[in-house]
């Protein structure tokens, strides 16, 4: 059974997507929270990227390939990323105000945690995004673009957000770059030109780059878990485990 401890699970990208789907099959009665890191690299394609996924499958890949039900660009997951999954009832107070506003509290919360660590992070307002100089040629990659309430440091993306709305509930997800991702692996997997790798490095940053060393994933997860449970107002209730995971003490 799942419970509120441990706070961090080490999984594959497929495990994470299976958890999302399993929990959205039935009505979400109470907020559910999970924090993840990854055993190995993976590429998670958006729901409209089936063609890219099929092309990637036709080439030798150095990472796991999986498609999610939410939109957006391809996400490179791996040991460098700390992800959160938050399931909310459709009528939850944090979802009031519409689709874009639903992200605001999460982006602001993670940005605040990063500032507490000494990183000059802030969540982008819709006006900030309209005034940004994001390169549309990088729209195939989640971290190549900017959306409202995602988190940047000096204009460089460090936290990506996504959501999936179903009749039974709403899933909010985030991915924070604790260390430098392997953008070469992502571009090679999708057969992208070398210029895209350089562009992703310019458009993104990580805690490691900002601080000089990557924070321990367990410590970051523990602090984020506490902040999230305080905002949600309840601790996650026990859940049936739909797949085996390796837990990381937090």
Automatic annotation (TrEMBL):
Keywords: Ligase. Residues 27-236 form the BPL/LPL catalytic domain. The lineage of its organism: Bacteria, Pseudomonadati, Pseudomonadota, Betaproteobacteria, Rhodocyclales. The keyword Isomerase does not apply. It comes from Parazoarcus communis. InterPro entries: aa-tRNA-synth_II/BPL/LPL, BPL_LPL_catalytic, Octanoyltrans_LipM/LipL. Coiled coil: none annotated. This is Lipoate--protein ligase. PANTHER family: OCTANOYL-[GCVH]:PROTEIN N-OCTANOYLTRANSFERASE, OCTANOYLTRANSFERASE LIPM-RELATED. GO terms for molecular function: ligase activity. Pfam families: LplA-B_cat.
